[in-house]
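Ops channel
N.P.: pipeline sanity check, posting one input/output pair.
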């Protein structure tokens, strides 16, 4: 690993003040330190933001405010999160391992980088790691990569499970930086790759995530489900965060659907949601809604299986949510 400076910030002002080009913020380090060991991340300076006073979960405006430095485990086991946002707790628990979750922070989870194998291998070209070098995944191994919203420059997927649940919950990510404070709605933090796959998010250099705000939970039943290659310690092939609110006449009053493992960002399935509102809550309608969304999919030669997988996951999860 190449040498770097390390400094620990006590508050946001100190963190922002310590930032200069070549600096990276350090959360739990469970992704960044791995990438530094691999030579993928090469910061000159680490500013440790894991001890900033953003380690609390507080009730606010009928919802919750979750500090950026809250550990993933503490979020998943928090009694209010478990009672009112079980889909969020489940999404966090479906990721990584107990040890990793105990270290990992909320902000770090959202900003973790893609697990595309070429991105992590500095002997290979990769537009995300080194813009302009090409995307070997398109003609190579892309079996677990994107089917929606990708570009000729990058077909990577975003790995965070938590981000998928936050996208379905209409959460907001609070950020402070050189331009002041702002709130970024989810989905919206993560970008599609277009011709700048090196930019995972809409954050500007030096921006510091301070918290995530959850509005009151949407009415209805919710669920997070994840399909992966093995039962634990694996990223999603396809995942879903779903909320279904039923009317008394057996029709869908409202719903929220977000997919993981299919795109460069959590994918909110707005077309499927639109197709479902007012429709009878039965299997044929759920399948029709899934098709409305997945008609946009452009699978690559070796990841076409994700289209029926996503379709089945949408249909099965919605069926489970019908009372
Ligand atoms: C073996 C393994 C399996 C895993 N499986 C899953 C999985 O299935 N699902 C899943 O979702 N995750 C999984 N993970 C990822 C794990 O959840 C992430 O490593 C973790 O959430 C990153 O959090 P961290 O605090 O350690 O971030 P760090 O590694 O410290 O940082 C990650 C990024 O966030 C930036 N950052 C950190 N804090 C801030 C801040 N406040 N403001 C701005 N930038 C900041 C850093 O600069 C860095 O770019 C897995 C990890 C491992 C090692
Ligand atoms: S899919 Fe994206 S991350 Fe993977 S090799 Fe191509 S450019 Fe790099």
């Amino acid at each position: 690993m190449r040498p770097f400076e390390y400094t620990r910030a006590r508050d946001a002002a100190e963190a922002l003040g310590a930032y200069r080009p070549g600096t990276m913020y350090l959360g739990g380090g469970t992704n960044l330190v791995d990438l530094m060991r691999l030579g993928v991340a090469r910061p000159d300076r680490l500013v440790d933001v894991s001890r900033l006073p953003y380690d609390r979960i507080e009730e606010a405006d009928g919802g919750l405010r979750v500090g950026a430095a809250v550990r993933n485990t503490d979020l998943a086991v928090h009694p209010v999160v478990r009672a009112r946002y079980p889909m969020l707790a489940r999404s966090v628990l479906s990721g990584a391992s107990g040890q990793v979750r105990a270290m990992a922070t909320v902000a770090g989870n959202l900003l973790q980088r893609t697990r595309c194998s070429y991105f992590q291998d500095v002997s290979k070209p990769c537009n995300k790691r080194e813009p302009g070098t090409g995307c070997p995944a398109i003609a190579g191994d892309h079996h677990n990569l994107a089917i929606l919203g990708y570009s000729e420059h990058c077909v990577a997927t975003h790995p965070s499970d938590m981000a998928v649940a936050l996208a379905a919950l209409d959460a907001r990510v609070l950020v402070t930086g050189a331009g002041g404070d702002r709130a970024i709605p989810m989905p919206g933090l993560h970008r599609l790759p277009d011709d700048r796959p090196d930019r995972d998010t809409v954050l500007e250099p030096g921006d510091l995530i301070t918290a995530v705000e959850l509005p009151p939970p949407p009415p209805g039943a919710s669920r997070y489900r994840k399909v992966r290659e093995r039962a634990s310690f694996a990223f999603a092939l396809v995942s879903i965060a779903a909320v279904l609110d039923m009317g008394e006449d057996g029709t869908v009053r409202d719903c929220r659907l977000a997919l993981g493992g299919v795109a460069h960002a959590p994918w909110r399935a707005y077309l499927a949601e639109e197709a479902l509102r007012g429709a009878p809550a039965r299997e044929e309608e759920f399948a029709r809604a899934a098709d409305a969304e997945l008609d946009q999919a452009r699978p690559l030669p070796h990841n076409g299986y994700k289209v029926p997988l996503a379709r089945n996951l949408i249909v099965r999860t919605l069926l489970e949510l019908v009372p």
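N.P.: looks fine end to end. The pocket of iron/sulfur cluster (ligand 2) is lined by residues 114, 116, 118-119, 126-128, 135-137, 145, 154-156, 197 (CB under 6 Å).
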